[in-house]
Amino acid sequence: MMSLGNLDFTACPLFIADPEHSGYPQLPSPPSRAPDRPMIRPAHPKDVPDLPAIVIASGLFESPQVEELTQMLEHHFSSAADSPAVWLTDDDNGPVGVAYVAPEPMTTGTWNLYWIAVHPDHQRQGRGQALLNQVEQMLTQRDVRRLLIETSGTADFDYVRRFYRQNGYQEEARIREFYAAGVDKIVFRKVLSP
């Protein structure tokens, strides 16, 4: 079961807890949500089949990466250990977006956004930005100092890198031919707190 600690989600207008699942923060009845506003919530076990489908539809990830995502999801929800990692979903009568963030091993206050994707039918509606904003808000409440995001340096990922830059991320590193011959890894970084 995912632990969200003692975070106050009442200040996060996009976060609405699922009252059917114990262990999630319980909020007062949320105000009705405008149809153009995403509902961001913690992912739960019943979302496991839907989240990889979003990633596949996004076209951003290859089959081995999607298989890894599926294994990570299944492990996260079947593990008896309490993980600090967080899976969020944008729910619009079912998951249409996903984000996965976890602490960077052997660091203090540095996390990595490993996955963020929105189904193509729901893109260009501010949902990716809403997911990213929710991740940042949640991590700021946890006193996380830095958020890293790794992505591909290929031309077909130009719009992805532009998205991160538009949201205040700076290119911190480029590892040449990391993923494959001719495919660099770009690491973006954003300071969340000093």
Keywords, please?
seven-stranded mixed β-sheet, Aminopeptidase, alpha+beta, globular, 28% strand, 194 residues
Provide an overview of this structure.
By secondary structure, this protein is an alpha+beta fold. The protein has one domain (9-144): Aminopeptidase, CATH 3.40.630.30. It has helices at 50-58, 63-78, 127-141, 158-166, and strands spanning 39-42, 86-91, 95-103, 110-118, 146-152, 170-180, 183-191. A 7-stranded mixed sheet has the order 1-2-3-4-5-7-6. A hairpin with a 2-residue loop joins β6 and β7. α1 (50-58) runs antiparallel to α2. The radius of gyration is 16 Å and the shape is globular. The two termini are 30 Å apart. The relative contact order is 0.14.
